[in-house]
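Batch job 17 of 40 flagged for manual review because the log was empty.
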Amino acid sequence: MRDNMSIQNRINQKEGTFWDFENTAKDMLHRIATYPATMVPDMQREIISIIIEENPSIQNILDPFHGSGVTLVEGKKLGLLPIGIDINPLAHIITKVKLQGVDKNKISSQNAIIKKNLEDINFAYNIYNFYKIDKWFKSEIIESLSKIHCAIKEIEDNNTREYYWVCLINIVRKYSNTRSSTFKLHIKSQEMINTIQNNVIQDFLKSINTHYKYLPDFIKTEEDFTLISGDVKEKLKEVPKESVDLICTSPPYGDNSTTVTYGQYSMLPLYWIASEDLKEFDEELLKNYSSLDSASLGGIKSSKVFEYDSAILKEYLSKISEKKHRKVIGFINDYIETLQLMLNSLKKGKYIVLTLGNRRVDNKIMPLTDITEEFLLDKGIPLISKFDRNIPSKRIPRKISRVNDIAVESMSKEYIMIFQK
């Protein structure tokens, strides 16, 4: 293994805005379903490649917040065994389909059957229903989505059915009455809702006939990757100690209710997926539109047993109003506890790569990167590389919250920090 400086040197050799990847076309594989604040595939592939070149003994990669699976997919392309954790059922099914692929011959033949059923005016289906469905979808959209829902449920093969549910995600988002400018569930104006034209079935058929071509050929899940569903603080305990070669992840920058609301973004697509295909998840996560965010890192249901004593955090808290302290402290405690669990799973001499952003609370920048470095250095884990990048292509809303009724701009930079245990 070469010395650590070579990793920093390789990163420094990249010119100017290289790490922005502003003009890079997104891999079609990752377009199968949209998801909030996804990682940039080219960036992840480049970072992982640099680390593998410096330490060829790396065999597996863990992402404890795998989201739509970008990091795990890129790691797998480079020959690493992917291990992922996420509490969000939508993230799980997207990542599973990307990693396991599909039986392309089966999909091709099944597409013809789906098309025949959806274009058949005599195809029998029930109108679907869930809480406040009429608020989020026009009646004719509900009818079309209900027909698709029933057609997918008739498919016996699990792998094929999962592919169709993932193809439905973008369709549900496109034809819902929610605003596209935010990940939170905010309804469009009636004027905008009136302009929605019903091309649901045509768009769905186009999706299922396009995306499978970019997926890998079907593989056996248990042999080629591991995905774990649930609370990261509990599920990291299931990862054997010192069994992971590379941790590469982008944890939430703050509690989901005030930053990126992955849960609210996911609820409408999740409600359209048949419950039997979500049976491995805690049904409480889908209880209401906020339940998934509440159960996520820093959420109101999070444990407050773990407490981190940080000088940097104390200084920051002195600059913001006291009413904001509880959520910040709750998130940081959850975040640091999760970092400790990550370290437990990491082999000595191996690496952890964190992509982080410093969000604003009370319009003051929260130094998450400094707190992270402070904690890991205290644990004897040195920072061997740190650089920032502009985030022109990371999918985040332009305005993410309001302070004193003034919209706060979202982050324009994120930071990549590489540590070695």
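Reviewer: the log was empty due to a logging misconfiguration, but the result itself is present. The first helix runs from residue 5 to 12. Unflagging and moving on to job 18.
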